Structures are given as structure tokens and as C-alpha cells.
Amino acid sequence: MRRRVLGVPPLCAAAIALAGMSLVATTAPLGAQAVRPRGVAVLTPDTIRVGEPFGLGVSVRADTAPQFPAILALPEPIEQLSSPEVARIGAGQWRAIYRLTGWQVGTHDLPAVVLRGVPGADSLPVRPPPVTVVATLPAGDGPLGLRPPRMPDWVRGFPWWWLLAALVAAALAEGVRRWLAARRRPDEREDAPSPVDEARDALAALKARALAGDLGAAACYDALERVLRRYLGRTRDWPDGMPVLADRVVGEGEAGPGPPGLEPVAERSLPVRFGGLAAGAGRLLEDIAVVSAWLDEAETQRAAADEPDGGEEAPADRGGAP
Questions:
Q1: Which residues pair with 42 in a beta bridge?
Q2: What distance in Å separates the CA atoms of residue 2 and residue 241, rounded to the nearest whole number?
Q3: Is the backbone peptide bond immediately before 243 cis, with ω within 30 degrees of 0?
Q4: 125 to each of 37, 43, 121, 321, how far by Cα in Å?
Q5: Is the model's pLDDT at 10 over the cut of 70?
Q6: Nearest to 256 by CA among 264, 241, 265, 246
Q7: Would you place residue 2 in the very low, low, confident or very high pLDDT band (cuts 50, 70, 90)?
């Protein structure tokens, strides 16, 4: 090759050298020119189901980083899910990725993404391609080919009849137990105290609370009412809903007074229980003592009536003397 160059006439060699210098001088300014901004938008994917997210990638080639819009002016069926993720992907190349989704079936045109701060231009619009949104269910007017509902295999193989029989047997056993417990009165238990012992213990506890002052007057008279009902219910079959401390008691179709001997307590308790009148601790203790004395006398008469040679039998009506 060197021999061929040297063999060229001097005039031709000078012409070739001058043409090479002219080409270098012509191409050098073109390489020094600035990069012309260009942008492109891509959808990934371009076909989605309703509510499925997709990505809108906007790439631009420019000398400096452009300003990507934070919020896109999208049509109503398209929704932006997050702010764009901007990154530099190469020398003079920038890309922003928007996460979008569609809520209406059809093909929707997306507006151009306008970039700001692009060298050599006030703005650079980049138009993305349209996105297609398809339905989640298959198309067609006929009924869907759904399989009939069925239980899982382990549920179908479980011995449900044995479990149901065991539950029914347990429910019957619990019902019988509660029925027997309801028929058996508390005073029929071997460890149950006698009616008078139970009443005396309740009066002693009530007296202690009255002395301590932690029980109001109305609550104290209500407790006396409960103690008397409990005692009379165990000894005379006193009905549960019939009051004891009352002016007149209705029972067996007739109107009559309560148990004799308790009239003073009834007269003092009614205004306090139902009228809101006050009563001091002294009156409460006095009425508790009256009920306790009435209880001792009633128990003495009941014991005498139970003796074989105890004389005439005491009257059996509820309104009679204890």
C-alpha cells in the first residue's frame, strides 16, 4: 500500500490530501451540535382487564433532565395509581414510569404527556398509544359455564352423622340434667340449711350491713321482704310474686292482711320503699329486731304444730297468725 501511495503523481496526492482536510472540516461542527430532544411513550401491557394496573413509560433523549408532570390529565375511565418514577437510563436519556389502571371496558386514548424544561423548546409533547380494557368475565350473552357448588373432599368424607348423633345425645343429657335440677327444690338438698337457720343468717348479715351504713333504707326493707318471702315459701308454700310487707295481700281469690305481727314493719317500709322517704339506722335495726322476734315466734308455733300431742293444729291459711 505504501508503494502505491508513493507511486501517485504529486499533483494527485495534493488533491486527495486537500479533499480529506475539507471533509474533516465539514463534519467536525456537526458532531459538536446539541442533541435534538426526542420522546417516545410505551404501554406495558397495552391490553388489560378491568382494574388491572399497567405501566406508561415515557422516555426522552435530551442533554439535561426534563420535568415530567407529576399528575396526568387522564380521561375518567383511566386512573393514575402513583407518582412517576423518574430515572436516568443512559447518557442523555431519561425515563419516567407511571402506574395506571382502567375501570371501563373499551379502547381509551391517552392524552399527550407534556415535558417541561427541555433544552431548545418550551415543552415537548409525547403522545402514548391507546390502551384497551377488556372485561374480567368472558364475553357472551348466554349463561356462564359454572360448575355446581360442592364441598371439599375432606368435608365430604368426614363422619358428620356420628358427630350429629353425639351432639343430639349431649343436648338431651343436658336438658334432662337441667330439668331434674329445676324440679329439685333447694331445701331438699342434704346440705341445705333449715328455713329458720337460713332466715336467721340472712337477718344477721342484714343487721351487720345496716350497722356499717353501707345499705340504704329502701334496700334494707327490700332485703327484709326477700328474707320473709324465702322463709314463708319454704314453710307455708308462699307464692313467689305475693308481697309480705303490704297492707293487704291478695291470695286464693280473697283479699286479706299479711302475716299478723308484721303490720308495723309494713307500715314503715312502704313509704320508704315506694315513697322515697328517709329512715335512720335506728329504725332499720328496730324493724330487723321485730322481724327476728316474729320469726322466733313463728318457728315455735310451727314446731308445736308438728308434735304428735301438741294440741289443736294451727290454721293453714296464709293470712292467719304464725
A1: 57
A2: 136
A3: no
A4: 11, 16, 11, 110
A5: no
A6: 246
A7: very low
The CA R_g of the chain, rounded to the nearest whole Å, is: 53
* Closest CA relative to residue 318, chosen from 255, 265, 247, 270: 255
- What's the whole-model pTM score? 0.37
What three-state secondary structure class fits 194?
coil
Q: How far apart are CA 56 and CA 118, in angstroms?
A: 20
Q: CA–CA separation, 66 vs 255, rounded Å?
A: 103
| Percentage of the residues of the chain whose pLDDT score is greater than 90 | 26
Selected residue with higher pLDDT from 197 and 18: 197
The single residue listed with the C-alpha cell 334432662 is: 176
3-state secondary structure of 58: strand
- Residue 155 C-alpha cell reads as 368435608
DSSP 78: E
Which distant-in-sequence residues (6+ apart) come within 8 Å of 238 by Cβ? Answer: 229, 232, 244, 318
pLDDT at 90: 86
Asked if residue 134 lies in contact with residue 51, where contact means CB atoms within 8 angstroms, the answer is no
C-alpha to C-alpha distances, 77 to 70, 101, 136, nearest whole angstrom: 19, 8, 16
What the block records as the C-alpha cell of 313 is: 293444729
Query: Angle CA(61)–CA(116)–CA(113) in degrees, nearest 5?
Result: 80
How is residue 56 written as a grid cell? 406508561
Bridge partners (DSSP) listed for residue 57? 42, 97
55 by DSSP, 3-state: which? strand
DSSP H helices in 110-159: 153-156
Res 17 pLDDT > 50:
no
- The pLDDT tens digits of the residues spanning 236-288 come to 877 777 888 876 544 444 434 557 778 888 888 888 888 788 888 888 888 88
Q: Which residue has the higher pLDDT, 224 or 256?
A: 224
